[in-house]
Amino acid sequence: MAQNLTRYAYWHFRDFVRERGLALIITSSLLGFTVVAPMRAMLGANIGETDAKRILILALPQVVFIAAFIALNGIVSTDRKLGYYRFLFSKPVSIPAYYTQYFIVSVVGFLAVFAFLFGVFALVIRPFNPLGALAFCTLVYLSFGGIAFLVSSLFRYDWPILAGIYLGSALVNGFWGLETGWKLFIRNILPPLHQLSPNDLVNLGTVDTKAVVWLLGYSAICFVAGLIVLWKRPIG
Amino acid sequence: MIELKNASKTYRPLFGRSVTAVVDFSLDIAEGEVLGIAGPNGAGKSTLLSLLLGYLKPTSGTVLIRGMDPRAFIEKNGIGYLSELMSINPNWKAEDALTRFATLAAVPPAEIPVRVNAVIEELGIGEHRDKKIKALSKGNLQRLGVAQSLLRDEQIVILDEPTHGLDPVWTQRFRAIVEGLRQPGRTIIIASHNLDELQRLADRVAIIDRGRLQRLVQTGYDQATDTGGKYRLSIAAGTHRVREFLPAAVDTGEGEFELSVGSVVELNAALSRLIAGGVLIAAVMPARSVLEQQFREAVGEQT
After folding, report:
1. I need a labelling partner for B113 at 20 to 30 A (CA). Which of A108, B39, B127, B235 fits?
2. Residues 1-60, chain B: which have Cβ within 8 Å of A?
3. What ipTM was estimated for this complex?
4. What's this model's pTM, rounded to 2 decimal places?
5. Domain harbouring B271, CATH code
6. What is the number of domains present in chain A?
């Protein structure tokens, strides 16, 4: 990556924190609160490690998928829609490289937000080792990131499409989990987010390798497709 | 330096009619040249600039900068560009925006504050440096846009409606800035509705309409003046005697007359007759500049 772009990573990170960081903290806190508060009320003040993990396992899927959606939508399309690309790409930068860097910086920002939220959780509920939970956040972000990047590269109004894909994936996997034929084909082309569960990561620190490879592979293919779109199709 | 060969661009929406914004456009723009682009609204100027910047690809034909695809050239060298639409994130501060653009423009880190301060000084936006973009007036925003295009000594500078929103003082200063940018190795392209500005700044002006290059007009003092056409005479004394010496002159009121002549020699002869007859002339001005005249003819409105 060119040095000028690498130096711009600071500004990318700042943009992420200012434009999405606060929204992520507020939304995730509110969503988390709806799960954590009743559990805490039920279990009392002295929550053991097992119960703390149980709360976390319940809260994480509720929070992280929505947070990933907030973090990822508009990653390319906002600049196209609002015309910011005009000044940015008159400078000596490659468009795919610019957005790849923003994607990478966003992962760091996303994890920083969740590290902060887990710190709050540790204070309010009980201290815990956050590595498993952070690994889950990383996996969700990366798994969802590829398709989000592709959709954002293709469409100016990406978030309704992304929300549709996300919802469609959840519905199809819920209703057609055991189907074959064309229903299986539809199921296979939608992001396989149902394969992600925080159970093993938070409890044991392990992960279903096959599921992760499938998820990351799917996401990587989508991401590369997004890069090809940015490389081949003019941004204007 | 820049070569457009039979470049066309057709927009094909999913629904609705296709629109061809640029049609079979061929033009060579030389190093060191200041080229003006003029045309009525919807003539295809913005599409043409987007083709030059590689933000759009031609549907047919080619656009090359130093023999390279425009995006490849820009990704390697960068370009000084002022967009007509001032699309900068409204939450950025003015100075931060310039620092960001300088970073992306590959200005060496140690020089960034120096360059940013220099363009802030040159464009007179020092008192606004800590303001957010959304708090800037149209004129200050325009000056910021000009400032970001001058952060680095680019070989190519493209300015789309550069004086739009500027007050007369800054319009004048902008002209001085462009004159200062003139260099043998630098190509400057200015798209503007302001024909007077193009007449003063550009070496040639491409007049486009309905996506086509209609005319390529050489500008410059000699070309502008050594020609026939309509002239406006402002008379200080002896108004009633003007028609006596120049029967063809049209009285436009308030001591002013419009006179059509075939050449500058003919104009001077007419003026001599007036002076000899005791008429006091206050001013002689072309009724329309050559460029304006050509523009009106090219876009279909006869003078």
Report:
1. A108
2. 50, 53-57
3. 0.87
4. 0.85
5. 3.30.70
6. 1
